[in-house]
């Protein structure tokens, strides 16, 4: 029953993308829109092939995507390493939350470019400010999901564990942590997405490589076909990263319902 529904939904997804592709082809091939604004799919494919073979601005395409993924993976890893324990502790200990939560809530709504130049001044123009910017972007969603997950755990579970003689440490590792894992993975997927959207901002200033920088550099010379190649590739790699996280989630949080799409 579920397999039939999934197959039907995938059909809708394929049909949506097919309609977009056909509409894109019609609009561009009939010159309804200037190719400077929207290049044709054929032109984008040709440009992609040329960039894959010859690279962009003296650097291979795979080096551009490699350095971008390096920045994303390192920053996301650091965010996971710090945001999960801080978020769980904030959710479990109100006094700890009173200290940490206001700091996260303060910087969370700030636009990345508002403080990126400060990070460059403080950390230099190498990889450090870029990774720090992505780290800050990824930290807040993971932290908030952890806090929310702990607070959603029924108090009866904790009371029952305490009545059986469990220490706070035992409760934390046997009740709080397992009960929070589904929301932690949701926050992790959101965090990676937010960090990826911040990647272009991170590579706008003091950068000469990366897929985000490639898009920004192409925009200066109105190379819309190169911009399309970069944007499409970022979208595809974002989908692949999310699929990888979903696979890990299914293995780690094996008890979670499979109704979530």
Automatic annotation (TrEMBL):
Stored Pfam families? BPD_transp_1
**Bilayer-spanning residue ranges:** 12-27, 69-94, 106-125, 131-150, 194-216, 228-248
Record flagged with keyword Lipoprotein: no
Q: SUPFAM superfamilies of this UniProt entry? A: MetI-like (SSF161098)
Q: What keywords would UniProt list here?
A: Cell membrane, Membrane, Transmembrane, Transmembrane helix, Transport
**In this protein, which residues make up the domain named ABC transmembrane type-1?**
65-249
Q: Looking at the record's lineage, which domain of life comes first?
A: Bacteria
The record gives the membrane topology as:
Multi-pass membrane protein
Localization per record: Cell membrane
Q: Which family does it belong to?
A: Belongs to the binding-protein-dependent transport system permease family.
* Stored PANTHER family: ALKANE SULFONATE ABC TRANSPORTER-RELATED, MEMBRANE SUBUNIT (PTHR30151), TAURINE TRANSPORT SYSTEM PERMEASE PROTEIN TAUC (PTHR30151:SF25)
Q: What is the name listed in the Swiss-Prot or TrEMBL entry for this protein?
A: Aliphatic sulfonates transport permease protein SsuC
Q: Which organism is it from?
A: Vagococcus luciliae
Gene name of the record: ssuC_2
